[in-house]
Write a structure and sequence with these properties.
The protein is α/β, with parallel strands linked by helices. The protein contains ten helices and nine strands. The strands form two sheets. A six-stranded parallel β-sheet has the order 3-2-1-7-8-9, sandwiched between helices. A three-stranded antiparallel β-sheet has the order 5-4-6. Bound molecules: ligand BV8. The site of ligand BV8 has 35 residues, from helix 1.
């Protein structure tokens, strides 16, 4: 394989599936049990905050006991051992990439183990339940605390830095994502326009499969370590 100099990785829920975390759109996925407009929009939070907070309290508890899998470990190894520049952009709100040792990491859709106050904007690590009766530790107001995650209709985090990296990369790896949610699903086109080689590593062809120059299909814990071995 040619020696790549600047690698951008995009990961989605399929990467954490083998660590025991549900994906969104698989048959028993999260959106099979909950409607996006009931639990993952600012309007839902304004309409029924306790229902939204309960949805994330359950997912936070689920994220507490899980461990990174061989795919997370392989991606951390790639960053550690590859001579070029490696940036990992994850759509996932779980902490599995950092637990596996990845350092240059952007949580573009936020983190379940952080809380955000809608009143004052304060962000801090938070591993417990959230409720409307909790007061913010910074502004002392109640009713504004939410998980620090990006809901539908909200702007993902660090989009400037992500676009800059996509415009300069020569290898783009998309791992474990269905390619249904934008702007993340459009990153492959930005990478192609920059002349990068684009690879999809996924259990099965994603909605955006036709936009990738190369596809490797199979479970992440199998295909990702093998692909990383090939790069190193
Ligand atoms: C934005 C965090 C604009 C929270 C998430 C109407 C109104 C408003 C917006 C829109 C609209 N119409 C369209 C939009 C845009 C919208 C969008 O794209 N909607 C979709 C549904 C059409 N996007 C947004 O709203 C975004 N913001 O547009 O802002 C704006 C502009 C200017 C100023 C202000 C605002 C924000 C989207 C972020 C929403 N938050 N998550 C939470 O987690 O609860 S999205 C959520 O779903 C994830 O974060 C992820 O990004 C997304 C997709 O999920 P995937 O990770 O891909 O998981 P999925 O289950 O879908 O697929 C898993 C894949 O893995 C499958 O392919 C499967 O085959 C594979 N797999 C399974 N097992 C394995 C495996 N692969 C390998 N190994 C395995 N073992």
């Amino acid at each position: 394989m040619p020696e790549y100099k600047r690698i951008v990785i995009l990961s989605g829920a399929g990467l954490s599936a083998e660590s025991g975390l549900s994906t969104f759109r698989d048959k028993d996925g999260i959106w099979a049990k909950h409607k996006i407009e009931d639990v993952a929009t600012p309007e839902a939070f304004a309409r029924d905050p306790e229902r939204v907070l309960e949805f994330y309290n359950t997912r936070r508890k689920g994220a507490a006991g899980v461990k990174p899998n061989a795919a997370h470990e392989a991606l951390a190894r790639l960053e550690r051992e590859h001579p070029g520049d490696v940036l990992t952009v994850t759509q996932n709100i779980d902490p599995l990439h950092e637990m596996a040792g990845t350092q240059r990491l952007i949580h573009m859709h936020g983190e379940i183990l952080k809380k955000l106050c809608n009143h004052c904007g304060a962000r801090e690590p938070w591993e417990n339940d959230l409720s409307t009766v909790l007061a913010c530790g910074t502004c002392e107001k109640k009713g504004g605390l939410r998980p620090d995650v990006v809901w539908f209709g909200e702007m993902p985090y660090q989009m400037e830095e992500i676009s800059r990296a996509l415009g300069a990369c020569d290898l783009f790896l998309s791992i474990g994502t269905s390619g249904t949610v934008y702007p993340a699903a459009g990153f492959v086109m930005e990478a192609r326009n920059a002349g990068a080689h684009t690879v999809e590593l996924n259990l099965e062809p994603s909605e955006g499969a036709s936009m990738f120059a190369q596809a490797v299909h199979g479970p992440a814990t199998k295909v990702v370590p093998a692909f990383v071995d090939g790069l190193l």
